[in-house]
Amino acid sequence: MIICIGAGPGDIGYLTQRGAELIREADVVAGFDAVVNVVQSIIPATAEVVLMNYRDQVAQLDAVAKAHHQGKRCVVVFMGDIHFSGFQYLERVERACGHPVDTLPGISSAQILASRAKVCFDETTFITFHRRGDLTPFKRHLVHVLEDARNAIVIPCPWDAARSFMPPHIATYLLQQGIDPAHPTEVWENLTRAEAEWHGTLAECVDKTFSDMSIMLIRTLAPMDSQIEAAPGT
Ligand SMILES: C[S@@+](CC[C@H](N)C(=O)[O-])C[C@H]1O[C@@H](n2cnc3c(N)ncnc32)[C@H](O)[C@@H]1O
Where is the Tetrapyrrole methylase domain (predicted)? Predict the structure, then answer.
């Protein structure tokens, strides 16, 4: 009676058919305002919409859990895919319900970035700083990823000034850790909607400003050679 679904990266055209079906059949559709907006056009007129923000999410999820326990079909919509930078919200949903809940993956902003920038998942590591708690292990892991000659797709943290870890902060941190300033770096904003892209080096990223809706790609300086068979005639 309750399922968490990935709503995709922003344009409803990227919502999966199964996700759309679940929303069309829902009695309750819940989520952060910006994410509910993505699917607004297919929410049935009869459905109750429960909007939330960072401050009231626990109370609002309690209301959704109550509806779920009353037997209503509830859908909680997540930005992009649940499985990248969505698990803390999922944990809140499960805590409110008192049990594990089903999930339906969506298309992540990381997948759209990989497609735009033509990077292969196999040679790329995904890291988010958009989470509560200690970011230190994630920062350290990013250093290791680049030292290990892999690409990194990174979701920055846009919150308040004390915690903000946006692309310029990430670049500054990496340079302080001895990472080569020449790493090709890209920042993509508002993927699938009003897209903007910036391309430069890690060093050049230090004094740039980007919106909250940004995702970063730091390319390895040593991309892997092709490992497929030699082309005929070579
Ligand atoms: C809590 S994370 C959720 C990410 C989401 N689960 C996903 O798979 O894309 C939210 C952050 O993801 C990034 N993001 C999400 N959608 C984006 C988009 N369409 N374009 C650029 N960045 C995006 C932004 O940094 C945003 O602040």
Answer: 1-204
Q: Which atom of ligand 1 is nearest to the CA of 86?
A: 6
Provide the β-strand partners of residue 165.
Answer: 157
- To the nearest whole number, what is the mean pLDDT of the chain? 97
Find where tokens 């009231």 sit. 56
Give residue-wise pLDDT tens across range 89-148. 999 999 999 999 999 999 999 999 999 999 999 999 999 999 999 999 999 999 999 999
Which residues are CB-contacts of 213 (< 8 A; sequence separation ≥ 6)?
10, 189, 190
Residue 47: φ, ψ to 5°: -80, 145
Residues in the chain: 234
Instruction: Tell me the fold of 2-104.
Output: Cobalt-precorrin-4 Transmethylase; domain 1 (3.40.1010)
CATH architecture of 109-218: 2-Layer Sandwich (3.30)
Contact 102, 4 (CB under 8 A): yes
C-alpha 123/C-alpha 224 separation (Å) is 8
The token pair that represents 27 in the structure block: 């009695």
Token duo for residue 211: 């919106």
Asked if residue 130 has its Cβ within 6 Å of ligand 1, the reply is yes
User: Quick check: CB of 56 below 6 Å from ligand 1?
Assistant: no
Q: Is the CB of 158 under 6 A from ligand 1?
A: yes
The per-residue pLDDT for range 34-59, each reduced to its tens digit, is 999 999 999 999 999 999 999 999 99
